[in-house]
Amino acid sequence: MVYTQRTPWTLIMGVIMVAYAYLVQSGALEVVIKYLGTGRHAGEMLTLGYTFGGIAILIGLWQLIAKAAEGHVDYYLSTIGGVIFIMLVAFIVKWGLDPQMAQWGRAAQPALGFNFASVMNLNYVVMGIVAGIVIVNVFKVPGWAENGVRLSRLGLKTGVILLGALYSFAELQQLGKLSIVLIGIFVLGSVGLVLWWGSRHNLPNSMTGVLSAGVGVCGVSAAVAAAPVVQAKSTEIAYTIGTILLFGVICMFLFPIVGKALGMGYITFGAWAGTGILNSAQVAGAALAFQPTGIETLKVAEIFNITRVLFLPIIVIWLAIWYVKREVGAQKVDVGQVLVSKFPVFVLGFILMFLLSSTGIFAPARHYQGSYFDNSDKVMIRKDRSGKEINNYLKDPDLEVLKKDAAKITRDDQKTALQRLIENKKLMSIEDDDTLRGVVNAKILSKEGNAVLTKAHRAVRHTAAKIAMFRDLIAWFFTFGLIGLGMQITMASIKQAGGQPLVIGSVVGVIKAVGSLIVVLLLVHETI
Amino acid sequence: MPRVRGTGIFLFVMPDFTHILIASHGTAGAQAAEQAALAWCRAGGRLSHLVVVPDLWRGMMGDDWLNNASTRDTYGKYVENELRREIDVHIGRLRSQASAAGIAYEFKVMLGKPTECLLAYSREVAPALVVIGAPRPRGLPGLRSRIHPERLVVALTAPLLVIPYPR
């Protein structure tokens, strides 16, 4: 079978991308960029525009001129159109719709009383997923793009693998422990609750089985893995997947709104989203919706996602044994085979990246955890592009604020760290920085005092250029993956949500979301 | 006087169609339509049976991204087999009923939107009458994928008979 379709669209999209990059480079779009405030993205507009546009032009010409022959090369090349299609949507959303929506949000604030774009988290991630959903349901994904759209799964997995490089051992250890406890309680709890409910209401075992996996573990992925094992009927699968998708999409919008309303931090929100959202794709979506300009929340949420997926083979085996016990003639399951076939191989890639980064092969170890500490004069006093000097030492009014607030601190280590800051006008060590971050988190000082401490913290914490690029790359992989997955959420499948699965899924989903919120707020702290 | 089994409908005229197209998918409403089609088709006539696998199944992998290709493949094959098994049961039942009534039976399974599939199959077999079941009443369980009679009325070239849902 030949997969490549003869279409001019790959070429057209390539020309659009290259033309856009050229217009940015030539300054012709300066007015638009200034209006939208997207100057900080100019670098990636050029790099990504020329790179993807160039590839699209080459492949587009090949698709038009050459005759495709069966084989692996044909299949791989047939994916390019879809990849470029998703990237074009991502460019439009990230560089156009996102800043425009932010402007509309600000403009409507006086009339509405709130910034709807900010409150509803209408950033490029959310709008990208929505764009994907709109495309598949209103316009349909074109045939020439279908193979490429399927690659979005690979994009997300690659994002997770690369993310592995950005964890410190302590982070991974602590988040790992936390996720095992929370996921253990809520996954096993919700699977058990659905099984109990199903048997109490005499629901078919096949329906109860597939629903418990979907609602309990990681949503659609778990339902897909469990359906053959519990011999689910077609309508039961449709009900379950419809329910999970419906619930997942709603959660992706609601969780960040609630998280921000409750003033949650990156860790608490990541832990909550990672535990409480039924469907794993929407966990990443909610994390990026909550924090679109950084990946700290995503890092936490993805650890929870990985823990969930590691639970999946165990749950599938549990359900298989449970089903065999209840159904005469049900096929016994080969435990070893299930463990091997359901093991998520990409998690090994994640671990490998973590191990490689720990050796310092990509960048010095201290650079990985987001920002590294440097308080030398070279970074405290520097010049901006126009040659104007920027002095990051604390000024006298700042010091006055701190002196006034100093009496509020009771702990000795915090007093000492603050005293050293006041004396030197800058943070003197990582330990002092960490100690005073604790003061900020605990909101011991006045609002002004906290602002000064945050200013001092920012002056000595820096993100390595290489790591910043790496983070951007990861964010792009997730953006690509999430937009592509959005293109696979059809209203026809969501409309199947109904029957007992909708009732049970909604009740258990709400219990899980609210229960995990309470546990996270009570037990999880915003520092690692 | 023929009686459409299960529907409570009594037909006061004796229709004599030689070729009927029935679109059904095994639900109670569709089974009532099948009985009407069998009752209205002349012995020695022809019954063309359309079974539509709704294209909503294309999206039934949803946004799964965690599973590996082998798990997705297993799931895809399982769903295919499950749908095939359900369709086989359904076709087998109608085939035996048609055979008992002395009606020639043929079937076609199509993947797509039910209304479009029915229109396409109707163009292909050119029946004398098209029979469908009425939409399922609200609140009853079943897949949300239905034929739109109002669109058929406009596009079909054969008469359309809509059998009420059995109550």
Structure at a glance:
The complex is a heterodimer of chains A (528) and B (167). Chain A has 528 residues and is mainly α.
SSE string of chain B, helix = H, strand = E?
Answer: EEEHEHEHEHE
Mean pLDDT of chain B, to the nearest integer, reads 87
- Ends distance of chain B: 21 Å
Q: What's the total number of strands of chain B?
A: 7
Stated plainly, the CATH topology of chain B is called Rossmann fold
Low-confidence runs of chain B: none
Q: Major sheet of chain A, described briefly? A: 2 strands, antiparallel
* CATH class (first level) name of chain B: Alpha Beta
Q: Approximately how much beta-strand content do the residues of chain B carry?
A: 25-35%
| Count of the separate structural domains of chain A | 3
Question: What topology, given as strand order, has the largest sheet of chain B?
Answer: 5-4-3-6-7
Total domain count of chain B: 1
Task: Please tell me about this protein's structure.
The complex is a heterodimer of chains A (528) and B (167). By secondary structure, chain A is mainly α. Chain A has three domains: 9-150, no CATH class; 166-368 and 467-515, no CATH class; 372-462, no CATH class. Helix content of chain A is 74%, strand content 2%. In chain A, the strands form two sheets. Chain A has a two-stranded antiparallel sheet with strand order 1-4. In chain A, strands 2-3 form a two-stranded antiparallel sheet. In chain A, α7 runs parallel beside α25 (465-486). Chain A is globular and about 80 Å long. The model of chain A has no long low-confidence stretch (mean pLDDT 89). Chain B is an alpha/beta fold. Chain B has one domain (3-58, 89-163): Rossmann fold. Chain B has helices at 28-40, 69-100, 114-125, 149-155, and strands spanning 3-4, 9-10, 17-23, 41-54, 104-112, 129-133, 160-163. Helix content of chain B is 38%, strand content 26%. Chain B contains four helices and seven strands. In chain B, β4, α2 and β5 form a beta-alpha-beta unit. At the A-B interface, α9, α12, α13, α15 and α16 of A face α2 of B.
